Amino acid sequence: MWAARVIGMLLAILTVGALLSPSLPMANAEPPLRLTAAVTDNAGVLDASGLAEVTGAIDGLYNARRVRLWVVYVDSFSGQTGTTWAQEAMRINDFQSDQDAILAVATQDRDYALLAGTAIMSNSDQANLRRNEVEPALRQGDWAGAATAAATGLKNENASGGGLSGVGTLIFLAMIALAVLALVMWGRRRRRKRREAEFAAAKRVDPADPNALAALSLDALDDLSKSIVVEVDNAVRTSDNELTLAVEEFGERDTAPFVHAVTGAKTALTQAFNVRQILDDTVPETPQQRRDLLTRVVVAAARADDELEAQREAFGKLRDLVINAPDRLDTLTQQMVDLTARIEPAAQTLAALHTQFSETALASISGNVDTAKQRLSFADQNISQGRALVAKPAGSQGGLVDAVRAAESSLGQARTLLDAVDSASTDINRAVAALPAAIADIQNGIDAAGTQLASGKVPRATELATARDAAAAAVAHAQSAGTSDPLGAFTQLTQADAQLDRLLAAISDELDTAARLNRAFDQALFGAQSQVRSVSDFIDTRRGSVGPEARTRLAEAVRQLEAAQALKTTNTSEAIQHANGAAMLAAQAQSMANADVNAAQRQYTGRYGGGGFGGGGGNTGAILGGILIGNLLSGALRGGIGGSVGGGGGWSPGSFGGSGGDWGGGGGRF
């Protein structure tokens, strides 16, 4: 019997399939409503006994787990999907993700949704419950049975996946193997659920309180630190973009408090990234050291978020977009016209670069023109929507602020994307122009090293010979690959030149060696600055899909650049090492960011059937680009019904502040 239960659990897991995407129903419209009772039967499908059955199941769920299930029967979802209708009902009724769940059924549309917080039941268990219990009852017209099944499933915290038929003795050995596999999968699932529960609890802790963080497990603290740096980095980036527009509109004097807030947030966030870099390097830490470092990350990021949150209300009053909306929409329209005029020249520039240089050299900008078109299309949609809302009477302009802000953010990202193409063209052509001089410069170093080695009296001869050979190899690479990847060749050349010049400086006190060191520094600094700027623009315009690892590498590259500039006059050799280190870290950040973006594109393509940056709908591109629509200056740690909600989900705010969320579930046709 034990083996049969284990095999049954395995087969239940293996039989879970993807829910079909719901179509939009058309029936007697009934919008989401304020619920006053646990069971609302506006469709009139429950008789007295059915109502008693459902009410009893709901009471049983509440008595067992203190979870409130709200059951609603209507004729139609007003042309919305069941998931979207239920999400709006949750918002209207101020549902809590760890206490409330909703089953909404449109009896004429034959559509439904069952949504509950992941703290109540995981997404996978909710999918089992909907597919195996709720939906079959709805298909048979058993309205009371569907609600009872939902309440029972939530009470048991696990949807049934069906039973196991009898098996013959010939497959007994296979059953044993399946049982072992089931135990392994069960153990993994249990650990995953425990970690998910710990992380959910961690998000409810005050992140600025080290004493509260001390009670968390190391895994939960690590998950919280990764989540918070991404959320707050998005909030800082978005707030910085919002502030730039405000400074242009109101001047530096009126926006000084907000500039101070953003600067303070950036400083605190940089501290968090510096500590994450220590955690991500190859040097292991003891558990206590790791806990201390993780606590520092979370506290620093929370401090950055508090800097923004403290100015939220004042900033909202300063930029009253409802009052200034007509003028602002005119300005945005002109900006869109100007940016649209830049699309074709940028495309021509990019096409010309592709004929000259390799894909590696253009990796950070290859999709910028197409992505800029998507941002402009999204901006146009929101400008049109904003004008339609402005024409409405006061009190009927809901969504106007969101439309203006979404258009502003989209246009800002489109401008950054097109500027990046122009900057890349300038930087690459500058590298092409500088290659001959750099080759000549390093050749002088190679000749000087050869002279020193030929004398037979040079110290550290082996090290100098190795550096000379590496420099010669860099020259050969630049001569062969300089036309296809000039920036890469330029960076490799300057690194080899810096190493050779460092050795020559240690061996000889000649003044011209010091001059070459200065030139090597300028070259190394230029290469590093170009790469750091390129990666920063890439992350800024794909912020919705880039994780903490790439951001941490980029933050460390910026720190190395600052160290290089600070050491230029006192220790040029060390300054060059910092500049080269910044270039290496920026390259790592680009690679990690590319991987995150590709993974996000595959995820959204699979989930929504849409495209990524280079194609598909503007909404998906806006999501991946981090254009987060919502309230001004909302703190990243304040929560709300955001994140991923089953089959459609609402996206969290994206202004001078941040966001969060913790709902799961979905629905579909029956």
Automatic annotation (TrEMBL):
Pfam families: TPM_phosphatase. Residues 39-155 form the TPM domain. The chain crosses the membrane at residues 164-186. This is TPM domain-containing protein. Keywords: Membrane, Transmembrane, Transmembrane helix. The keyword Transmembrane applies. InterPro entries: TPM_dom (IPR007621).
